[in-house]
Amino acid sequence: MPFSLWLSLAAVCAMGAMSPGPSLALVLRHTLGGGRLPGVSAALAHALGVGLYALLTVWGLGALIVRFPMLFQAITWAGAAYLAWLGIKALRAGRAGALHATGMATSRRQAAREGMLVALGNPKLILFFIALLSQFVTPDMSLAAKAVVVLTAMIIDGGWYVLVALGLSHSRVLPWLQARAHWLNRITGVLLLALALRVAAGPIV
Predict the structure, then answer these.
(1) What is the pLDDT of residue 24?
(2) Nearest-angstrom CA–CA distance, 170 and 150
(3) Taken in order 90, 38, 170, 103, is the CA torsion positive or negative?
(4) Which of 123, 172, 176, 205 lies 20 to 30 angstroms, CA to CA, from 141?
(5) Could you tell me the maximum CA-CA distance found in the chain, to the nearest angstrom?
(6) Buried-state track 106-128, b at ≥16 Cβ within 10 A, e below 16
């Protein structure tokens, strides 16, 4: 995979990881309730779940492109519509959202279990990955290239939420984020809408 194409992949994976939602709320709750280690445990377990979904999506997309190109195109457009819906939802969220989650008493084992369950229990991740990864998967894609796609999605997701857990373990960070939640939601919404248009336009080359 060319480095320039990988940068595009990394950018869209980062956008998926950073978008507000139940995953952010989970890491926030476990960090506030148990401290840094439970928050990091939740982040790493969530990344494993994301990696599994990415793996299933990459293999499934390759077969779908070859056998049912029209169905693949329809699913891609559905993924673009879903990204647009997420963007509109973020724009309308204002100050509300995952940044207002509260802490809960927790342990590293509980945090890891819930991190995995939140990832695997969210079937919308499949649609999200179809919308994102459809831009990078080709019928003749090598095994190494598929591994790069999966590892990129998993490492970026885990890296982002580990940073969130480390940052939120400092008491000054959360109030700063809460005070700017409306701007974070607006920026995320605009970027998700732009990504939806990019997906609808066709594969990145």
Answers:
(1) 78
(2) 31
(3) positive
(4) 123
(5) 53
(6) bebebbbebbbebbbebeebbbb
- 7-51 residue pLDDT tens: 888 887 887 787 767 777 778 778 877 778 888 999 999 999 899
DSSP assignment string, 65-97: HHH-HHHHHHHHHHHHHHHHHHHHHHHHHTT-S
- CA 85/CA 91 separation, integer angstroms: 10
CA distance 170 to 160: 16
Instruction: State the pLDDT at residue 104.
Output: 57
- How crowded is residue 102: how many other Cβ atoms within 10 Å of its Cβ? 9
Regions of the chain where pLDDT drops below 50? 205
d(CA 17, CA 47): 10
Non-local CB neighbours of 110 within 8 Å, separated by 6+ positions: 30, 38
* CA gap 42, 176 in Å, rounded: 22
DSSP states of 33-48: HH-HHHHHHHHHHHHH
Average pLDDT of the chain to the nearest whole number: 77
Check: CB of residue 150 under 8 Å from CB of residue 66.
no
DSSP state of 100: G
**Location of structure tokens 């373990």:** 169
The answer to whether the beta carbons of residues 44 and 35 sit under 8 Å apart is no
Identify the pLDDT of residue 2: 77
Tokens of 2: 């060319």
Q: Which residue has the tokens 């599994």?
A: 52
